[in-house]
Amino acid sequence: MPRLLFSQGWSREAAVRWFFSPGDLVIKNIFVEGPYLGTRMILVGVLSALLVVADAKFDFVSPVRQTLSTALAPVQWLVSAPGDIVEWTEDTVKSRDQLQAENAALKNRLFILEAKSQRLSSLSAEVNRLRELLNASSFVDDSVLVSEIIGINPDPYLHEVVVNKGFEDGIFVGQPVLDSYGLVGQVTQVAPLTSRVLLISDHNHAVPIQVNRNGVRGILVGIGVLDQLELVNIPDTADIQEGDLLVSSGLGGKFPPGYPVARVNSITHDPGEPFAKIEAEPLAELNRSRHILMVFRKPEPILRASEKNPTEQTAMAQ
Q1: pTM surpassing 0.70?
Q2: How is 128-179 classified by DSSP, letter by letter?
Q3: Rounded (5°) CA angle 273-279-280
Q4: At 272, is the secondary structure helix, strand, or coil?
Q5: How far apart are CA 175 and CA 152, in angstroms?
Q6: Nearest CA-CA partner of 179 in 133, 147, 144, 246
Q7: Are 200 and 191 in contact (CB under 8 A)?
């Protein structure tokens, strides 16, 4: 249009005045304030108050509300959808390094829990063994001291263990040793803090025993095998049966009488031999016990002549 005016001889100033002429420029005001604006606002307020009262007193607005809620549900879903999509995307596209770190942390935690579980199992078994040892000590008439095995002699031909008690604890050479089930052996060497115990299964060890059923006496010796002992020099006609319990007889003065030692599990009669071959299984857990009892035998009281039985005094006088 300006080019057309210029071609017709119009000047620049005349073209600008004609183009922006107020008579040709029409602007319609959208927000028109009329004389009834205040009245309309009052009517709207009154109508809103009536709707609030009607909703509180009557129930006919509830269907309208439900209809509007149903109609607006898709809108609410669309509004919340971007946030849900972003959160789902973040959870889905986690970095591989983060997942590997979490996996490694969970594996380490699992290893720690398994180690603790194994330790708890070991402690539970140790508590049970100590309880059995405590129960065994209640049947021992003599004083006892609980000690722990801290070492084993590596020589396969010498059945010997080291315990954590020495002469500072009152341990002495020849002292008998028990566990929860029977006789273990005797002390052979004593140091200030430790001692060495020779097991009854050693081929240099012998225990005077008697059959608990009938009192038949004998010597039970070790043969170098932890689960096998031999009863020597028993006549072929002796009344000994498989399953008989062998207890210490107390002869020799080293082992108190009445402590369980072994149980007969094999008897062989050879017609050409004067003695029967009798094998027995030790009752003590020689290869499993961790805690043992050091027995302090009480000295037997010496009776004076006046305290003896009158029958014994008469026999001595004769």
Answers
A1: no
A2: HHHHHHHHHHHT-SSEEEEEEEEEE---TT--EEEES--GGGT--TT-EEE-
A3: 155
A4: coil
A5: 18
A6: 133
A7: no
In angstroms, the CA 196 to CA 190 distance is: 7
- Mean pLDDT across 273-287: 91
| Cα–Cα nearest to 295, from 185, 151, 157 | 185
CA 138 to chain centre: 29
Task: Label residue 250 exposed, middle or buried (CB < 10 Å: 0-12, 13-18, 19+).
Answer: middle
Tell me the per-residue pLDDT of 20-36, one tens digit each, with 9 for 90 and over. Answer: 554 444 444 444 455 56
* DSSP H or E segment with residue 120: helix 96-138
pLDDT in tens, 171-206: 999 999 988 888 999 999 999 999 999 999 999 999
Strand partners, 74: none
DSSP 7-58: HTT--HHHHHHHHT-TTT-----SS---TTHHHHHHHHHHHHHHHHHHHHH-
- Residue 31: CA atoms inside 13 Å, Cβ hemisphere, count? 0
- Own/partner long-range contacts of 263-268 (Cβ < 8 Å, ≥24 apart): 264/231, 264/240, 266/242, 267/240, 267/241, 267/242
Q: Is 49 left (phi over 0), alpha (psi -120 to 50) or beta?
A: alpha
